[in-house]
Please model this.
Amino acid sequence: MKSIQKLFFIFILSSFTSGCVGVFSWDKAKNVKTVKLDPIDDFMGCWYVISAIPNSIEEGAEDSIECYKLCSDGSIETRFKFYRDGKYKELKMNARVRLDKNPDGGVWGMKFRWKNLLPLPQMAYFILKFDKIYDEKNQQNVKVAVIGGPTEKTLWIMASEPQISETLLNNLKLVASSYYDVEALKMVPQIRNLK
Model:
């Protein structure tokens, strides 16, 4: 009986991983223009998710915040905090700058665990924009970032403030429009963070 369970587990695992080949693909690393991250410490800290193409975890999320912390071993501890259905949730991931894919540091490999158990292959993430820009809504300079993933349906626009102007948002969409489906972006409500 145990051998049947093992075979079933291997079948499920191979089906899952082969179905996700596109998700874990690094093909975009050759085609996407990323920014130079030097020093990388400037990118660390917490970012409000302004707009995203929601995956199954992010669908219906509010008050989403992504935090990055550079560890002594060079990895980047990543925490995604959000509310969904009125409940607070937090996911922890681990990232690493992939200098072998791009020496400027704008390409990251993000590691997840399926069901908090099974480690999955690194997923490719690309920093398309990282800048401080004057925003008329906040009447100040705001740090902004545009981050894409391995498929055209993985994209996030983030900022150091919970809201940015529509003009700035549209300019950030333009940065990603050559590589990603910006029409699929949805605004992330930052209700609790605006109080």
